[in-house]
């Protein structure tokens, strides 16, 4: 071979090696600070664990994954700027959440960069409902799905009782309260009162006044549509007012981090819902999920929360869709996701084609007593599963989704 040919071949090989070693960047847009920071920490831990496992197994197309993150602080405008920065850094996909307002804003900005966005914690119906679009996929369940499994239980156990709602004043709070009212038969707002709490940034006295309004009512069921630190404060105030002694308290979306922050003594007996908890793989015998819980617990000295499992699952789901598509192109990866069925940390789940909602079994939970909680080596045996509902029964139907889109003057196909 002539010297010029050898030089060209050597240069080609060097380029190929460099490309193979170039990391594939994944952009995590999560709350490192602010009211949802504990949920954000869990997301980052779950994502890092998935990235490191995949890299140890050879990466993606022989290239390592690299997690690049930004702090959203649960602020939509900041989340949009983060998306612009992450896109400029060359990320191949984006994921994150904890606030539905953030997830919706960030996913819309991701669409401008032709990047897919995966919602981790974003429970508002609007995420895959009126605000859904082609580039948004939601791994977790929706407020509707949570309300369905809770309503199924509460209608049996607390029929014809008065409810009172204390609700965070943003898209997740609004759609959660609406869904809970529908599936518990409490749509009469005169009989079943409510107070809204500002989000973000509610003052302690504002939450206190809202809980006092519930205490002054005749309600037998108090629904705290609060999340993160707001829920912690709301439950603490409710305990100080001794409301658990005369009301069943419902927190529609429960997470391990929120229960731990509040404390098992205060949270004992509270009812809520979740798409996954760390005891699900053991109770229903899912070996891959058990392995995830064991590895996560040993690594971080804590049980994984719903948000950790969601972020972990998203990294794997995106990676496998890229492999099926044999492409990083967003449209190709999207098509590889739509309709795809899989089992990872629980029973079968699938990505629904018409709205990109992840359809999966959902669970109603009750927080165990303190003595039961303490039996776990990590003192986090919080969740008793009191009701389950298959995903197809919990999720809104196509006709219901279309009706919601039409009510909000949105196209009846994702764009």
Comma- or semicolon-separated keywords:
415 residues; alpha/beta; seven-stranded mixed β-sheet; five-stranded parallel β-sheet; 17 helices; 17% strand
Could you characterize the architecture of this molecule?
This protein is α/β, with parallel strands linked by helices. The protein is built from 17 helices and 15 strands. It has helices at 3-21, 37-56, 76-88, 100-112, 143-157, 171-184, 204-215, 228-240, 256-262, 264-267, 280-283, 287-300, 306-325, 330-337, 370-373, 391-394, 398-407, and strands spanning 24-30, 65-71, 93-96, 117-119, 136-138, 163-169, 194-198, 221-225, 248-253, 271-274, 341-342, 349-351, 358-359, 362-367, 383-389. The chain has a seven-stranded mixed sheet, with helices on both faces. Strands 2-1-3-4-5 form a five-stranded parallel sheet, sandwiched between helices. Strands 11-12-13 form a three-stranded antiparallel sheet. A hairpin with a 6-residue loop joins strand 12 (349-351) and strand 13. Helix 3 runs parallel beside helix 4, helix 5 (143-157) packs parallel to helix 6 and helix 7 (204-215) packs across helix 8 (228-240). The longest helix is centred in the first third of the chain and has 20 residues, at 37-56.
């Amino acid at each position: 071979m002539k010297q010029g040919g050898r030089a060209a071949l050597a240069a080609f090989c060097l380029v190929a090696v460099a490309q193979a070693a170039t990391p594939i960047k994944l952009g995590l847009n999560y709350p490192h600070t602010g009211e949802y920071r504990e949920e954000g920490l869990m997301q980052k831990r779950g994502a890092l664990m998935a990235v490191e496992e995949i890299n140890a197994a050879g990466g993606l197309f022989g290239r390592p994954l690299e997690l690049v993150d930004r702090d959203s602080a649960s602020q939509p405008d900041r989340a949009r700027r983060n998306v612009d920065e992450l896109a400029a850094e060359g990320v191949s996909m984006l994921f994150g959440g904890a606030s539905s307002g953030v997830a919706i804003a960030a996913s819309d900005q991701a669409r401008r960069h032709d990047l897919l966005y995966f919602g981790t914690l974003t429970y508002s119906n609007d995420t895959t409902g009126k605000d859904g679009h082609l580039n948004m996929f939601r791994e977790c369940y929706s407020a509707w799905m949570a309300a369905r499994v809770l309503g199924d239980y509460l209608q049996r156990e607390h029929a014809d009782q008065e409810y009172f709602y204390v609700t965070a004043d943003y898209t997740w709070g609004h759609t959660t309260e609406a869904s809970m009212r529908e599936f518990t038969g409490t749509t009469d707002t005169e009989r079943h009162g409510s107070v809204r709490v500002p989000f973000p940034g509610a003052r302690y006295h504002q939450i206190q006044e809202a809980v006092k309004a519930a205490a002054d009512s005749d309600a037998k069921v108090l629904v705290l549509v609060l999340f993160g630190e707001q829920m912690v404060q709301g439950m603490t105030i409710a305990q100080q007012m001794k409301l658990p002694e005369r009301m069943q308290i419902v927190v529609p979306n429960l997470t391990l981090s929120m229960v731990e922050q509040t404390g098992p003594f205060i949270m004992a007996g509270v009812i809520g819902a979740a798409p996954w908890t760390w005891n699900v793989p053991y109770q229903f015998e899912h070996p891959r999920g058990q392995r995830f819980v064991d590895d996560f617990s040993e690594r971080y000295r804590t049980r994984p929360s719903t948000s950790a499992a969601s972020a972990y699952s998203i990294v794997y789901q995106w990676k496998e869709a890229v492999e099926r598509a044999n492409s990083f192109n967003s449209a190709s990866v999207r098509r590889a996701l739509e309709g795809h069925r899989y089992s990872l940390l629980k029973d079968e789940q699938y990505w629904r084609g018409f709205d990109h909602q992840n359809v999966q079994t959902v669970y109603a939970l009750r927080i165990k007593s303190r003595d039961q909680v303490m039996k776990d080596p990590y003192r986090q045996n919080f969740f008793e599963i009191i009701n389950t509902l298959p995903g197809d029964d919990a999720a809104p139907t196509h006709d219901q989704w279309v009706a919601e889109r039409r009510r909000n003057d949105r196209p009846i196909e994702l764009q």
